[in-house]
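Lab notebook, entry 546. We have the chain sequence and a SMILES string for magnesium ion, and the next step in the workflow is to get a structural model of the bound complex before anyone spends time on docking refinements. Request logged below.

Task: model protein plus magnesium ion, output structure tokens.
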Amino acid sequence: MDSPLLQEIPILKLAEVHSKPDKQAMAYGTAGFRGKASKMDHIFFRMGMLAVLRSKMLKSAIGVMVTASHNPVLDNGVKLIDPCGEMLVESWEVIATGLANASNDDLVKELKKIVAKENIDLSQTATILLARDTRPSSLSLSNAVQDGISALGGTCRNYGLLTTPQLHYIVSCYNDGVKDADEDTYYKWFSSAFKTLVNEPPVNSNVTVDCANGVGAPKLNKLYEHIGANVIDIIIHNDGEGCGKLNEKCGADYVKIQQRAPIGLNMEPFHRYASFDGDADRIVYYSLDCDCNFVLLDGDKIASLITLYIKELLDESKVDVKLGMVQTAYANGNSTRYVTDTLNVMVACARTGVKHLHHKAVEFDIGVYFEANGHGTVTVKEECSNVIERAAKDDKLPAKQKDAAIKLKTFLDVINKTVGDAMSDMLAVEAILHAKGWSVREWAQLYTDLPNRQLKVTVADRTVIRTTDSERRTTSPEGLQEEIDKLVALFPNGRSFVRPSGTEDVVRVYAESDTQEHADSLAKKVSILIYEKAGGVGEKPKEESA
Ligand SMILES: CC(=O)N[C@H]1[C@@H](OP(=O)(O)O)O[C@H](CO)[C@@H](O)[C@@H]1O
Ligand SMILES: [Mg+2]
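Result returned:
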């Protein structure tokens, strides 16, 4: 008998509306598909169909998020969310790429191939949870996703505007049996956990948040309404209502890379500032010191603060579980040293891309993971949550011990464990500063960042660079690593590595050393080496004359 998929006519009719331009190929990368919005309609349609197939296969709801995060406003992108709220499994990234690149004529054949290979029972129902960011193209592209969903007979719950982490959270709630989970469920959960942590006395301090003119602004506003201005004072900047453009000279990525304030923000010393990115899954903090120097508190500083706090509560509660932290090679060397040597907590290194960090983090009972750019969260094993919960209810424990367990339990409730979440991470940081009675100054002084520099080199084919050891060393081109080692040895506390970017057509160079001059010089020397050894194109990087 024909499977429902063989009702090819409706698929083909819709596929004609969302037709793929010739010769266009895209890959599902670390951040899903991303590119110029005007050239991607067919990808969104096809991802709607793919989400239906995955939902049928796993007999669970699948999320589809329409966003291009921190990219310019004319870009867009799409990513799928797996049932527990995690990123799409890697093996399906390959399948997604195959479906996206199939010619219009081969589309049905490609769908049949997936069904056969993955052994998908098409009689299963499919539920897709869809949301989008505030880009001008997002509405029509989410309509294309909806068309893809209906082409294969799936049911779509469209949540409209959401931040990426809100959708991840809702997907996990839905598959946990909370079928009516929505945006309000999110606000109620996180605001109530925060208020339990900070109720006596309230935080009563203020933080200014640059929302990159993105979806984070209206959503942070709603979260703020649930928390109440009597608990914390949140001032929203770049809320998308003025003439500022999405991610233009603002947002977490801009602030981290430029190490400066977003547009239009007049900073005052010691006040606390934070920036979200365009879909609010990244956050960095910053401040001015007494000499008006810009002080960045990036993903490494946030991770260090969270690890410190969890470690203290574990020690106080005497709950014996394994805490670990996960970073990438981009983590500042002094953050790694601080957590390893001062906090005595194990640090693991993962490849760039949050899914790699997430996978490593779940190996610990409690895993704190962050990319230096501010994307990260905390994972907690279920058995570990149970141990903490039991201690929090154990009347036989000394009061101090039990109290610490209660605090730890409530603190972990403030965390969106499915994925890095700017709003939930912000609440976590604010709660810790409140608990410790710290201003941003004490936090900044946990350790001093080693001066560092990131550069990009354009080469004809960036895949000639191959790496090992979580991207910290190269295996090809031959002899390159030995040359890098020689350059690194010239600089005190020198460290440098290179890797092909997964999102841009460049090779990234990272260097750190004891002074900014040294870090800059090492980064330059390594860039020149890459240009020479890995087929550089365009203008050759030059060493600045002394
Ligand atoms: C050095 C750096 O910040 N790299 C970013 C960037 O990846 P690249 O593979 O380096 O282009 O985009 C990724 C997706 O947003 C993010 O996860 C990652 O941290
Ligand atoms: Mg983002």
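Notes for the group: The first strand starts at residue 33 and ends at 36. Worth checking against the assay data. Residues 30-31, 330, 352-354, 371, 373, 501-504, 508 surround GN1 (ligand 1) (CB under 6 Å).
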